[in-house]
Design goal:
- The protein is mainly alpha-helical.
- It is built from twelve helices and six strands.
- The protein has a two-stranded antiparallel ribbon with strand order 1-2.
- The longest helix has 34 residues.
- It is rod-shaped, with a radius of gyration of 44 Å.
């Protein structure tokens, strides 16, 4: 749109003001064709040409339309009765669009976990659009709202400033954003495909339709009720994908640096009763009834006997002393640790102390 004095919105708003003495339904009927014509004409203007130069002032063009439609000329400008109303259909629709877009942004951050949350902004959008769908493609009443004008002024910095150059550059990237938006929505749909087929179909449909909604919103502002929430949903999905990816990377890093606990190897186990007396010939089994075997088995000293001399799960394990090439089985001799009393359950020390005089080595016949 290339205008100097008046944009399309302001021009149409001036025309509506010039026709406000007519019934609202008749004004809507007149403006229905005019809005599309003015919007199309604005795209054909030269660099320094304005709508006023082509059509005349809004009042003049409204008088021509009034005459062509057979209405009497306006002799007195009547006060606009809706000016003082706080809640009008255009204002409610505009705020509904803004609120639904914000809710969609928040919902997009959780849509992959619960897609049904998108129903809330969807209902708000449908209801707000229904209020102004009959007001034409340019939505002049919404664009003439004070809050809308302030937003436009905030988004229109002075010419030649860095902010103006930055906004101009960002506007030139709109076609690229429409493709990126569709890609983000498509990615969200793919991530939902295996868990929620209905959510997959809805977001996939939004992704496809968003490609066409962007260009159409420039000439028909009713498409903003789809285009803006679609952008908010894409940004919300991007935040969620980044969050999930960051958590996965952090988890993988923690897992890679996690040290595998070292398993201490025990060669022997000493069992004591509550009075600190060493128990002998104790057979140990686990919760499944399997023997808890020591890593070492004692087969015949000559190595020819395949059967172990001593069961591998009998404790304490004996030790083998060799003397002159003859194998002797010697019973273990361990004193009760000083910490073992009848009133404590402290595990015995694993260190082997000097054999007690009460337990003497027992020699057996040499193994064959």
């Amino acid at each position: 749109m290339n205008t100097q004095a008046l944009g399309v919105e302001y021009y149409l708003a001036g025309m509506r003001a010039a026709l406000d003495d007519l019934p609202p339904n008749e004004v809507a009927e007149i403006m229905e064709d005019v809005e599309a014509h003015v919007a199309e004409l604005s795209t054909e203007l030269g660099e320094n040409e304005t709508l006023e130069q082509r059509l005349g002032s809004p009042d003049q063009y409204a008088r021509e339309l009034r005459s062509a439609a057979g209405y009497p000329p306006r002799t007195e400008r009547l006060p606009v009765t809706t000016k003082g109303k706080l809640l009008t259909r255009p204002r409610v629709a505009a705020w509904g669009l803004a609120i639904a877009t914000g809710v969609t942004l928040l919902a997009g951050a959780t849509a992959l976990r619960e897609p049904a949350i998108l129903l809330l902004p969807g209902v708000i959008l449908v209801l707000s659009l229904a209020l102004v769908n009959d007001r034409g493609a340019t939505q002049a009443e919404i664009m003439a709202l004070p809050e809308t004008i302030k937003v436009k002024q905030w988004l229109t910095p002075e010419a030649g400033t860095p902010a103006e150059r930055a906004l101009t550059y960002l506007r030139s990237l709109q076609p690229a954003w429409w493709l990126v938006r569709a890609g983000l929505l498509g990615l969200g749909a793919v991530l939902l495909a295996s868990r929620d087929i209905l959510g997959f179909l809805v977001i996939a449909g939004i992704a496809v339709l968003s490609v066409f909604a962007g260009p159409r919103a420039k000439t028909d502002r009713r498409w903003l009720w789809f285009s803006l929430p679609a952008s908010a949903l894409a940004v919300g999905l991007l935040f969620q994908v980044i969050d999930v990816t960051a958590n996965n990377l952090a988890y993988n890093n923690r897992s890679s640096y996690q040290q595998v606990p070292s398993m201490q190897s025990y060669q022997n186990i000493y069992a004591y009763d509550e009075n600190g007396k060493l128990l002998t010939n104790v057979l140990l089994y686990d919760q499944d009834g399997d023997p808890i075997n020591a890593p070492r088995q004692y087969n015949g000293c000559g190595g020819g006997d395949p059967e172990p001399m001593i069961p591998a799960n009998r404790y304490p394990r004996p030790k083998i002393d060799y003397e002159n090439g003859v194998c002797y089985t010697v019973a273990p001799s361990v004193s009760a640790p000083s910490s073992v009393t009848s009133t404590t359950n402290t595990p015995p020390s694993s260190s082997v102390v000097t054999p007690s005089s009460s337990v003497s080595p027992t020699s057996v016949s040499p193994s064959k």
